[in-house]
Amino acid sequence: MNDSDKSRKPSAEGSQAHRDAAPIFPLSSTKGGEGRGEEAQGFPAQIPSPQPSPRSGGERETGAVSRCTQVSLTPGQRAWQRFRRNRAAVVSAWYLVFLLLALVAWPIVLKVSGGTFAQIHDPNQLSDAAFAPPGAQHWFGTDVHGRDVFSRILFGAQISLLVGIVGAGVSLVIGVLWGAIAGYVGGRVDSALMRVVDVLYSLPTIIFVIVLLTTLGELLKQSHFVENSPALTRQLRVVLLFVGLGAVSWLTMARIVRGQVLSLRTRAFVEASRALGGGPVRILARHIIPNVFGVVITYLALTVPAIVLYESFLSYLGLGVQPPMASWGTLIAEGVSQINPIRIYWWLIAFPGGVLVTTLLALNFLGDGLRDAWDVKSK
Fold this sequence. Notes:
The chain has 16 helices and no strands. It is mainly α. The longest helix is centred in the middle third of the chain and has 37 residues, at 149-185.
């Protein structure tokens, strides 16, 4: 090794030592190229990260917990939370619960109490206290025959609400099955079933029910089976009212369910069930109908007040419930018949009409609340 090699070797070692002693992160400068020392050494520039505020961590944790809670809730629990935020629907639900408790408890109270109290408040007990105004003895007054109006309203509510519940039940059974079969099968079956619905829809609803009740009522009068049994005749009139109102209550339900089934039958979970060998009955019962449950419950809640209003109107015309049986429609009709230029017995109209209007409003508010609760787009 010559002298030139010996002279170059210390310089190389010195440069290597200088590189080793150089700072890893040199200070950057804004002048010229002096601030590019980090890039020249191959190290990225260190950018200081902002320090989180004292409250930001808690807010992030709260948001994460709320998101986890929202994800863990079932659709029914989310619907219940949305329903509880609707004050009108909650108040209406409590009113209907109180009304149902009163309908169940009042006959029991009359039977248990006995004596003068039961005799005074008997809805069919005639007395000399005709047209007595509301007071301590008769809370809602008396009618033309001295019968207690409060008891007659509660007993009449049993028939009016029973007609509404039966009509809603007919709408549930026939409408859901009709619409589900039409929507799932499709083709000619769908066309044939929905043409029947269109034909019934083209008829005026109330006129159709009036003609049906009148025709069946005349056949009932000519029957020797009920000729000598007025009580059986009145009961069969109520059954005919069920049939007439139930015949038109399921049409809208069938259309709604059919539209829902048409949108669900092509979903991935239905195709998966079909690929696994599931038959039409199993797919409808296990996968499709449970997914339209929210829509069905909502429309049922809106169907009951419509049928109650139909029943009250038909009873007001004399085509529904017949005396001495009472419904809200017959009570209002009796009150209207007592209007004269000399004196108006206001309690005969105000109390039955007020209970009817309040109940219809409560049922409609409840239906609106259920519709908003089951709406997946609502916040």
